[in-house]
Design goal:
The complex is a heterodimer. By secondary structure, chain A is mainly alpha-helical. Chain A has two domains: 25-534, Cytochrome C Oxidase, Chain A (Up-down Bundle), CATH 1.20.210; 567-627, no CATH class. Helices cover 61% and strands 1% of the residues of chain A. Chain A has 17 helices and two strands. Chain A has a two-stranded antiparallel ribbon. Mean pLDDT of chain A is 91; it is low at 1-19. Chain B has a domain at 64-191: Four Helix Bundle (Hemerythrin (Met), subunit A) (Up-down Bundle), CATH 1.20.120.80. Mean pLDDT of chain B is 89; it is low at 1-14. The chains are: A mainly alpha, B mainly alpha. The interface between A and B is large, with 66 and 46 residues.
Chain lengths: 628, 193
């Protein structure tokens, strides 16, 4: 039986050999190879995830143990520990702001989309590289510059930006407002400008590659769901990041040039500012026009990865392939028309509020379709619990539990009570934060063999999974309760208030759980870096998967396939097909080679397929004759 | 049959559109989104009142004419390049570049006219928006002029002709797009004044 490993092309074309003369700089630093760029994004993303996680542990210490003496943190935080051994109040605001910014943009956008779109798109659609390797390299280095600037802002005297990751004016627009609105905010804006440029360069490349560089036979209805997810993510990014750029541009003018786009009638210390005629709500509209699609920029790649991992490890075709695509398309479109549900309490017209509420609740339909399809794929499958599979199932769990609370929050009346409380924090940390993080980790476990040619240790993976999975629920589940009770987010000190001072135990519990969960990530880190050099050598298709990336050499060179790019003859989910010898048939196996498992309509396609193959081999012979 | 199974790919990949050209179109989409955001912000802000009314500078009519004329010249150059008429190509492109620079100078004079009318960048958002629209458009137009100059230079090196039209086509689409963008902005301002 013909399998994917028919790499026996005796008349090898050597037109890619010249690219193997890379020196250290062109191979590891200024590489234009999509696989290396993906790895660069991954390593940078892991670095940021550590910083972002560490910041959250710091403010969880303040929330869980408000009386604790933090003098021992002085070597790390210096002047941000007050003389009484407490965390500085403005620094607390900076911590939550930077935690949000880092996690949303640097980890779950660049670290997730940047890693897997880059790494998987050419490998799974059968392309040598991205449409423009140079633009791709530029995308990483813009991200790198952005990272350096954001990192520097953590260490300046007035502290990093402190107005929340949404940086609402007037707080963010007036340098006098809080220390974090000074230089820290300027650096934040500069870093985000570079970040937007990086995202757009990446996104343009992803879309161009998926549309133009698919291999023969790889029609849109044969694309793996990962590619569909990355493609739609890039479309969302392309349409929404420019709007954030516009919002940031006007904010820069307000901050540094004295215009009044967002500022009006403000008094500071009894003195009236000259700005009149601006509208801070305008910023909120512009910001959330990016901000809400951003949620799906973060989530869709994780959902795509999950589709792939769950189908592979259930040894079943994904349930409802077309429904999955349609629901992702639905999510993409809906994500642009629901932004004002973040602004129900901004004084918006209540009638407008109910329209946005209606549109928001519609998103529950495609989301529920996706969840249903995941569960039905798992249902009665021959489940193989690899770490990637566990993390994917974990994602589905978070997507359900976090998604349910979204129905509450999308309701404009209930949102009056829940707005800006820990209920919101719990909701988005489950459905967007943890779910996407689990998708990212699942992707790393699943494609690690392709990235580094070695396997990650599964037992450490199991320990990592259970500690993280239980830990995440321990951290975020209690937050629902204190949120319903009205406990507001971003408060530095809450013990002084009658309505919130009874939650000390719960907060302490959450903080301890958060620290344990954070510590558990070091198991992953060890596993990641140890396996990179010492892991078990991977076989060419360790998960017995159907998609194209497993037809490359174990560690593919620049150009991915020696010789010709494989042709695709079937969809990517031929798992456990009745009649087939193996429980998977790679996409490269023609229908004519599997008469025993073809369905009636596929048997009819065999004839046309044979004709195409004949034409092509003639063309190939002609081409080879021409070249020699 | 099965043993003969090989990677049967033609040397040429099935490319439906030139990738760089496609990427340029996507870039234009991002520019559209920036200006869509800004013009929507303009409408939303205008609806809230406290809005300074002033007359648009007359020079906009002139610059709009210039930008259309420039596009026409470029299109003439494009057709000439297709017919391998290289001298007409160079004349047309030079005229397009020249008119592009005239447009930029004209936009500068629109700012002078605004200042004469006591409409400043710092002040009521009504005026600030106009400076942002024209300024940001000018930034993009400068990138377009640079692009045109690059293509013009390569046309003098005989690198633009009927068999090598890719950069020429890209430059033409980008330039038409920027002209169209200005016409949109001008129409928008006329209708919302």
């Amino acid at each position: 039986m013909a399998t994917a490993s028919v790499a026996t092309h005796d008349t090898a074309h050597d037109h890619h050999d010249h690219e193997h003369h890379d020196n250290f700089v062109t191979k590891y630093i200024f590489s234009t190879d999509h696989k290396m760029i993906g790895k660069q994004f991954l390593i940078t993303g892991i670095f940021w995830a550590l910083i972002g996680g560490l910041l959250s542990v710091l403010f969880r210490l303040q929330l869980g143990f408000p009386e604790m003496n933090l003098e021992w943190l002085r070597p790390l935080l210096g002047g941000w520990i007050t003389e009484t051994g407490q965390l500085d109040q403005t620094f607390y605001l900076a911590l939550v702001t930077m935690h949000g910014t880092i996690m949303v943009f640097f980890v779950l956008t660049a670290g997730l989309s940047g890693t897997f779109s880059n790494f998987l798109i050419p490998l799974q659609i059968g392309a040598r590289d991205m449409a423009s390797g140079f633009m791709n390299m530029l995308s990483y280095w813009f991200f790198f510059v952005s990272s350096v600037i954001m990192f520097i802002s953590l260490f300046i005297k007035t502290g990093p930006a402190g107005g929340g990751w949404v940086v609402y004016p007037p707080l963010s627009a007036l340098e006098q407002a809080i220390p974090g609105s000074g230089l820290g905010m300027t650096l934040w804006l500069v870093a985000m400008t570079f970040f937007i440029a990086s995202s757009l360069l990446g996104g343009i490349n992803y879309i161009t590659t998926v549309i133009n560089l698919r291999t023969k036979g790889m029609s849109f209805s044969r694309l793996p769901l990962t590619i569909w997810a990355f493609f739609l993510t890039a479309v969302i990014g392309l349409l929404s990041f420019p709007v954030l750029f516009a919002a940031a541009l006007l904010l820069v003018f307000d901050r540094s040039f004295g215009t009044s786009f967002y500022l009006s009638d403000i008094y500071i210390g009894g003195e009236a500012l000259p700005n009149t005629g601006g509208s801070p709500v305008l910023y909120q509209h512009l910001f959330w026009f990016l901000g809400h699609p951003e949620v799906y920029i973060v989530l869709l790649p994780a959902l795509g990865i999950t589709s792939e991992v769950i189908a592979t490890n259930s040894r079943k075709p994904i349930f409802g392939y077309k429904a999955m695509i349609i629901s992702m398309l639905g999510i993409t479109i809906l994500s642009f028309i629901v932004w004002a549900h973040h602004m129900f309490v901004s004084g918006m017209n209540p009638f407008l509020g109910s329209i946005f509420m209606f549109l928001t609740l519609i998103i529950a339909i495609p989301s529920a379709v996706k969840v249903f399809n995941y569960l039905t794929t798992l249902w009665r499958g021959n489940l193989i619990f690899t770490p990637a599979m566990l993390f994917s199932i974990g994602l589905v769990s978070f997507f359900i539990s976090g998604g349910l609370t979204g129905i509450f929050l999308g309701n404009s009346a209930i949102d009056i009570q829940l707005h800006d409380t820990y209920f919101v924090v719990a909701h988005f940390h489950l459905v967007m934060g943890s779910a996407s993080f689990f998708g990212l980790v699942a992707g790393v476990y699943h494609w690690f063999p392709k990235m580094f040619g070695r396997m990650m240790d599964a037992r450490l993976g199991y320990v990592h999974f259970w500690l993280t999975f239980v830990g995440v629920y321990m951290v975020f589940f209690p937050m629902h309760y204190i949120g319903i009770a009205g406990f507001p987010r971003r408060y530095y000190s809450w013990t002084g208030f009658e309505f919130s001072n009874m939650y000390t135990d719960l907060n302490m519990f959450v903080s301890v759980a958060a620290i344990i969960t954070f510590a558990a990530q070091f198991i992953f880190l060890f596993n990641f870096f140890y396996s990179m050099y010492r892991g078990r050598k991977a076989s060419s298709n360790p998960w017995r998967s159907t998609t194209l990336e497993w037809t490359t050499p174990i560690v593919p060179g620049h150009g991915n396939w020696p010789g010709e790019i494989p042709t695709v003859y079937r969809w990517p989910y031929d798992y456990s097909k009745p009649g087939a010898e193996e429980d998977f048939i790679p996409q490269t196996v023609p229908l004519s080679a599997t008469p025993e498992s073809n369905l009636p309509h596929e048997q009819e396609q065999v004839k046309t397929e044979m004709e195409i193959i004949k034409d092509e081999s003639e063309a190939l012979v002609a081409n080879e004759a021409k070249e020699s | 049959m099965e043993k003969e199974l090989k990677y049967i790919d033609l040397v040429e990949q099935p490319i439906s559109m030139h990738p760089k050209k496609f990427a340029l179109w996507l870039f234009m989409v991002t520019v559209v989104m920036i200006f869509a955001a800004l013009t929507s912000a303009y409408i939303v802000r205008q609806a809230e009142g406290n809005w300074l009314e002033y007359d648009l500078p007359q020079v906009f009519w002139f610059t709009s004419g210039v930008v259309v004329l420039s596009s026409l010249f470029l299109h003439w150059a494009y057709i000439s390049a297709k017919k391998d008429n290289l001298s007409q190509l160079r004349i047309g492109m030079s005229m397009a570049v020249l008119l592009g620079i005239v447009f930029l100078v004209g936009q500068w004079y629109s700012w002078v006219a605004l200042v004469d009318r006591q409409v400043f960048f710092v002040g009521n958002p009504s005026g600030s928006f106009l400076y942002v629209f024209t300024g940001l458009h000018a930034v993009h137009l400068i990138s377009g002029v640079i692009f045109l100059i690059i293509v013009l230079i390569s046309s003098f090196r005989y690198k633009v002709h009927s068999q090598a039209m890719n950069t020429m086509e890209m430059a033409t689409s980008y330039w038409h797009f920027l002209g169209g963008l200005w016409i949109y902005l001008f129409m928008f301002l006329l209708l919302n004044h």
